[in-house]
Amino acid sequence: MPRIGLIVNDGKQLAVDTALTIQKKLEKERYEVIRASSSGGMVGFANPDQHMRTLGYSSCVPEGFDSSMSLAIVLGGDGTVLSAARQTAPVKVPILTINTGHLGFLAEAYLSDVDRALEEILLKKWEIELRTSLVVSVMRGDQRRWETLCLNEMALHREPLTSMCHFEISIGRHAPVDISADGVILSTPTGSTAYSLSAGGPVITPDCPVLQLTPIAPHSLASRALVFSDLEPVTIFPATPERLMMVVDGTAGCYVWPEDRVLIRKSNHPVRFIRLSDHEFFQVLRKKLGWGLPHVAKPEKN
Questions:
Q1: Would strands 3-8 and 71-76 be described as parallel, antiparallel, or unpaired?
Q2: Fewer CB in 10 Å around end: N or C, the chain?
């Protein structure tokens, strides 16, 4: 019997009700449905007074999810999708994202399209688009103190974010650079339309094999966003005596101490998004962010 996963934001009643409807339809078509909460991919924030989360990123995979699963349907907003990415990428399960939230930038379908989306899934009329993901690790010497998978971005800053920090950043084989700023963001092309965009970074189309480093409120006119090959591992050394806060995809994070370093590298497990139709990225930018809308001049006053 073929198996389909169902990852649900259990905190949203609309998502829960929709999941029940979808499950009944799939079981009627003789699919085994394995349901999981998206909370399993929300790693959360490590308490500095407790032990760090030393588990590897594959620990987020729900019980019963493996590479033999046909796909997983994700019900929720963009935050739910980010969590589901951690739960499915390590076992190569493609995800169909159905938005029950607000913006839905990462959504493939909406509630009004559920019946059509299920029909196309059952008829296998879909393709897979690969999106780069990152492995973010906090290291102290040779010890891994914390690790998670990242689809959008890693942000490192002081807590609260009110004063300048110093960072020494090493990108692959290149000479280390020093950046003075409120913080730094390391993002994928998918994350280029998220926090990095708000900090002044460029939009990068998802098919570009690059990463982006964006300073937050830099203390120099020369410190600007940098785009480089995603084959280059990045190491960030906090050159600040106080602890810093690291946030990954908005749902995971921990404190980073002066003796730690943050290692970011491209994951061998891309996130597999199911596409039911041609995913035209510029159209998504236009609809969601208003990019490229025609300019209309203000009417002249009489």
A1: parallel
A2: C
Range(s) of the domain holding residue 143: 134-266
Which CATH number do you get for residue 226? 2.60.200.30
- Of the candidates 78, 230, 249, 260, the residue annotated as catalytic is 78
pLDDT tens digits in sequence order for the chain, 302 residues long? 899 999 999 999 999 999 999 999 999 999 999 999 999 888 877 765 555 556 678 889 999 999 999 999 999 999 999 999 999 999 999 999 999 877 788 989 988 889 999 999 999 999 999 999 999 999 999 988 899 999 999 999 987 766 789 999 999 999 999 999 999 999 999 999 999 999 999 999 999 999 999 999 998 888 899 999 999 999 999 988 889 999 999 888 899 999 999 999 999 999 999 999 877 888 888 888 888 777 665 566 65
Looking at the domain assignment, is residue 296 inside a domain? no
Q: Which helix (H) or strand (E) holds 18?
A: helix 13-28
- Are residues 258 and 140 part of one domain? yes
- Number of domains, the chain: 2
Active site residue 78: yes
68 with 48, same domain? yes
